[in-house]
Amino acid sequence: MNEEQAKQRVKEVRELLEKYSYEYYVLDQPTVPDAEYDRLLQELIELENNHPTLRDEHSPTVRVGGQVLDFFRKVEHKVPMLSLGNAFNEEDLRDFDRRVRNAVGDNVSYVAELKIDGLAVSLTYEEGRFVLGATRGDGTIGEDITNNLRTIHAIPLKVKGEAVSLEVRGEAYMPKRSFQKLNEARQEEGQELFANPRNAAAGSLRQLDPKIAAKRNLSIFVYGMGQLAGKTIEHHSEGLHFLKEAGFKTNPEWKQCDTIEDVITFVHSWGERRPHLDYEIDGIVIKVDSYYQQEELGFTAKSPRWAIAYKFPAEEVVTKLLGIELSV
Ligand code: NAD
C-alpha cells in the first residue's frame, strides 16, 4: 500500500471508528459487534505503525472512550481513567510478559481477573462516605452520575472500618437475568430492546431520573483504586483484600499467577466457563501485582504498560434472544 492509499484508508477507518464509538459510548446503541470494532482498531494501529506520518493525537488509537453528555455535571478525574491494551492470542500475552520482564526484571508476579463487560465508574469517598460517582467519559473528564450510582445496593454509602478517603474504580453491570427480564418487559411494552447487558447498564446509569436506574437491578465489581489517603498498600492483590474488607464488592475469581503460562491456563479455563456466570465477561485482565513495578512500567497515552486485556474470541455474532434476532 503506497502512502496515498494508506492515507485514504486511515481516513475511512477513523471515520468508521468515530461513528461506532459515538453509537456505543454516547447513544448506548452499537450497530456493529465489538469484534468488528476491535478489528478496525487493530487495522488502524498497524497502518499508523507502518506510516508514522499519518499519526494524529486525535486518532481513535490514542483516545479513550467517548464524548461526555452535556446534561450531566462534568467531573475531572484526578487520576486519569485509562483504557487497556489488548491481547487476542497466547503470543500477544507472551509478548506482554517479555516487555514487562525487559523493563523490571524477572521477579514478576501477575494478578489475572475477569474482565467484566459493563460501564467503568469511579467512586469517591471522603472520610469514609460516598460523595461522588462518575463515568470514565473520555478518561480525563467524566459525568457525575452519583444519584444513579447510589441506587446500586452493592455500592456502600459508607466504608467499613476506618473512615478513609479514597477513590475506587469498578465496573457497573447488569446481571444476565435482569437483562433478559428487562428486554422481555420492553418487548411487551413495544419498546426498543437493548442490544446487550453492557449497553443496558450504561443506558440505565446515564439517565437523568435515578428512579430508572433503581428499577434496573444493577450491580458492581470494584477492581482497583485511583487514590487512597493515609495508608500504604504495595501490591494490587493486597489492594483487592483491602477493598473487600472495606465493604466493596470485589470479584472472587481472581488468581495470583507467577508465570505467563499460569495466566494462559487461567484464560483458557474462563473461556470455557464464562457461559455459566450470571454476568458477562469479555476477557481477562492481567496486571503486574507490585505497585512499585507498575510505577516503573508507567503508561502510554491511552493505557498502562503494566496491564493488558485478553479479549475472548467473539461469541455468536447474531444472538437469538426471546426469539428476536439482534444484530449485535
Ligand atoms: P476495554 O474494554 O478494552 O478495557 C478497559 C476497560 O475494562 C476499563 O475501562 C474497565 O472499565 C474495564 N474492566 C473490566 N473489568 C476490569 C478489571 N477486572 N480490571 C480493570 N479493568 C476492567 O477498553 P475500552 O476503552 O473500554 O473500550 C473498548 C471496548 O469497547 C472494546 O471491547 C470495543 O470492542 C468496545 N467498543 C465497541 C464499539 C461497537 O460499536 N461495538 C464501539 C466502541 C467500543
Automatic annotation (TrEMBL):
Q: What is the lineage of its organism?
A: Bacteria, Bacillati, Bacillota, Bacilli, Bacillales
Q: What is this protein called?
A: DNA ligase
Amino-acid positions noted as binding NAD(+) in the UniProt annotation, renumbered to this chain: 34-38, 83-84, 113, 136, 171, 287, 311
- Give a short account of what the protein does: DNA ligase that catalyzes the formation of phosphodiester linkages between 5'-phosphoryl and 3'-hydroxyl groups in double-stranded DNA using NAD as a coenzyme and as the energy source for the reaction. It is essential for DNA replication and repair of damaged DNA.
Which segments does the entry list as coiled coil?
3-57
Question: Which family does this protein fall into?
Answer: Belongs to the NAD-dependent DNA ligase family. LigA subfamily.
Query: What positions constitute the catalytic site?
Result: 115
